[in-house]
Q: What sequence folds into this?
């Protein structure tokens, strides 16, 4: 059955949820999205790239707004097809992808079909494989193969943000601390040097660490440094000669990646640990002072800091202000009980319609 | 080729090493040991039990001395057949089992064939599967199936002790400490409670722990408390809600197992950790004041504390004074480079001959 882009975006969300699209198996959904865009929108160039669908206008507007959402979901957990319940604050739509992020996709598809004269040029990207390893990410593929499609003055990712504009993102750096010792039989422990015991001062510094809170471009960021893995031990009767601890530092976007690494090293300074950086990604400043972004914030009535690392950073790295803005509580993403308030789907639709048309919305 | 029990016990050691007998594959060696005991000793009742061989006299002596050694070895590591080299302090015999413990077996077999009129009744037990999980231990099987064979006034295990009498043994107790927390995304670490960080004070107490040194029955024991395993972590971007630490306490035999457990709990008192005992075995007091044991100590010129847990404890649990006494440096056991000084095989043979005959030995 073809998708109806022009009806209620909550109904469209339900229709999208009812077509399973676990990562790498997005083809049936991508086919329907492509067909619907070709049939139900005007003035869009539509392109297919693998399991991604791209569409854009060329109206010659001063600014271009990019709307992007991934079509894939995590594996289904007995939560497809969608169903509706009545909650204390209104109707809820339940099912895999209702939050992450078929409700966001539905809003974008609905706007593409129903905003007749946008005041900005529009680019829509519906992509694949966001929920699996970064190397497979469809937006990454588009960035490599069709980079001109990412040109925009502001990018809006429809990731769940509970109906708030979330801007920028934290950076992340992971380090591995390795403690070394001397192996011995635990019956003669004084002949050895216990590498697990050597982690004591490291863990104490982590436990005592005071995380910084800082305002960047009007958004407040709170940092955090967390042990995320510890491992050590040879056998139940052996003093171990090695132990390792993985630490993840999430930092505000006023630090560069290099400055963040330096900060982590300074925290463990003087403990004689081998500290190796295993992974890192820079943060992104909110960048909400750019005109196209400021307009969006005004339409939504404010913005808050984004904490997690999302595809927003790809745009930030290209100098494009980017925000997350979508229906649904991000804490419900990837859970069996994933659900979204229907009213939030309408609210996000209305805000974006106001932003794209410059006109007040008649509140249904 | 049959074993020659009457020649040089170093040659006999080499012959035993040249017949592979990795745990569970002791049958060919047990066959030869049984045949040699039947053919080359007088006055012994010889019994076969699986891959174990037992022999005992019934001379009506006041006291009975039990000599026990396991026939099995750890897996061969390119170190069979045996070979000899000349070291700075005399000849060395190399090969799998030269230390652990075919040299001890050879001494016992040689004495059984060459001590014509022992002043004590003798029991010999050559058993299987000592080097693998305790449930398969041949001495344990004999204890269950032929318990009267373990009756003795003193038991000598030929485990490598570098030619010293090693008496008693440490006890051991293992506990698992479990820290709990609250899981959260590491980008919002303040919403979680990091269970790995909660190990900081536990590791500090271990690092600061002062181990006791105590004399028991004339032997000095040194205790030790060691972290032997640490594990925690959910994913690289998650504040973990659980972490666990395994601690091994090796304690002097003046503490009971229950008292040792209580001591471990007191060390971690007040940290709010869940402490579970996962494994424990009591220590054994040296018990060298019993007459048959005191004679042996006199013959060897002294005794020292045994640290590791060995089959000695089985006898101690039955109220039988028991010691380890055998050629070879225990630190070389289970190593590719396992080797024993030939002179130590002779020395142990001479001391035990003096003990069993009550006569001075002509030093070859």
A:
């Amino acid at each position: 059955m073809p998708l109806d882009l022009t009806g209620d975006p909550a109904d469209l969300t339900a229709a999208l949820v009812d077509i399973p699209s676990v990562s790498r198996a997005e083809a049936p959904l991508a086919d329907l999205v492509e067909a619907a865009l070709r049939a139900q929108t005007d003035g869009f160039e539509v392109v297919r790239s693998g399991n991604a669908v791209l569409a854009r206008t060329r109206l010659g507007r001063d600014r271009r707004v990019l709307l992007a959402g991934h079509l894939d979901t995590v594996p289904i957990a007995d939560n497809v097809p969608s169903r509706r319940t009545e909650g204390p604050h209104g109707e809820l739509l339940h099912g895999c992808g209702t939050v992450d992020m078929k409700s966001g996709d539905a809003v974008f598809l609905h706007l593409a079909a129903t905003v007749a004269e946008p005041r900005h040029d529009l680019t829509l990207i519906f992509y694949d494989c966001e929920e699996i390893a970064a190397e497979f990410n469809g937006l990454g593929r588009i960035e490599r193969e069709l980079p001109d499609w990412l040109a925009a003055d502001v990018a809006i990712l429809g990731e769940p943000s509970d109906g708030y504009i979330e801007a920028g993102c934290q950076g992340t750096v992971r380090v591995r601390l390795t403690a070394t010792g001397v192996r011995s039989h635990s019956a003669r422990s004084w002949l050895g040097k216990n590498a697990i015991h050597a982690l004591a001062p490291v863990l104490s510094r982590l436990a005592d660490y005071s995380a910084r809170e800082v305002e960047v471009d009007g958004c407040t960021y709170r940092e955090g440094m967390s042990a995320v893995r510890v491992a050590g031990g040879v056998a139940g009767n052996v003093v171990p000669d090695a132990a390792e601890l993985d630490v993840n530092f999430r930092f505000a976007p006023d630090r560069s990646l290099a400055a963040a690494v330096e900060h982590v090293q300074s925290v463990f300074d003087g403990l004689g640990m081998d500290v190796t950086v295993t992974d890192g990604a820079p943060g992104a400043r909110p960048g909400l002072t750019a005109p196209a972004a400021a307009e969006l914030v005004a339409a939504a009535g404010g913005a808050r800091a984004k904490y997690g690392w999302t595809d927003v950073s790809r745009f930030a790295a290209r100098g494009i202000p980017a925000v997350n803005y979508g229906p649904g509580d991000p804490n419900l993403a990837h859970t069996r009980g994933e659900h979204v308030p229907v009213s939030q789907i309408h609210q996000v639709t209305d805000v974006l319609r106001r932003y794209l048309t410059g006109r007040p919305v008649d509140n249904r």
